[in-house]
Amino acid sequence: KMAADTSVDILQKVLENEILQSTKVVEEHLDAEIQKLDQMDEDELERLKQRRLEALKKSQQQKQEWLSKGHGEYREIPSERDFFQEVKESKNVVCHFYRDTTFRCQILDKHLTVLAKKHIETKFLKLNAEKSPFLCERLRIKVIPTLALIKDGKTQDYVVGFTDLGNTDDFTTETLEWRLGCADVINYSGNLMEPPFQSQKKYGTSFTKLDKKTIRGKIYDSDSDDD
Questions:
Q1: How far from chain centre, in Å, is Cα 47?
Q2: Containing domain of residue 126, as a range?
Q3: Alpha-carbon distances, residue 195 vs 145, 169, 182, 183 (angstroms)
Q4: What's this protein's function (predicted)?
Q5: Cα–Cα distance, 74 to 4 (Å, whole number)
Q6: I need a labelling partner for 169 at 20 to 30 A (CA). Which of 29, 45, 133, 197 fits?
């Protein structure tokens, strides 16, 4: 009986040992797998981190380059000659042709100051129309205010008066931002198919053509009806 008990004990110990061994093997195997996965993840994370850092570095360099070219603030340029130089060195430019006596130019100034800070990928300028007759003639600017929207040195689009902005002096900065987004002259993150003023029924889609009133070559204010 004792011998039998001993053999049972031995068997049990052997069995326990086997189980322990196999568990150890399984655990070691699992450890190795986990380590391998961890290792792979670390490599992947490292690569990801490197890519992210490179992208950040690139975007920082791009930002610095834009700032060095006068982006990030809404600036007045003194002459037509400056206009050509400014436009040549930047991919996206918004230039406001204004006149001191035109009230609507001051409204645009307020919104453009905000957008210049927000969209540093684009250069925002203003130029006195009375000091730039050659440019006004060449760009066919008849109504003040007019925004010339320039991409790669070429004038692609114009915002003439406030017709495209809901035909009101009370348009929002978001509305102007949307309009510039339509011309692809800023990086616009909203939905181009939904103008911010669309919900305001009183403007509807039947914009009047008041702003288009011109007489041969003379520049008019879009906020005066007595010319």
A1: 27
A2: 67-183
A3: 21, 16, 10, 13
A4: Significantly diminishes the chaperonin TCP1 complex ATPase activity, thus negatively impacts protein folding, including that of actin or tubulin.
A5: 98
A6: 133
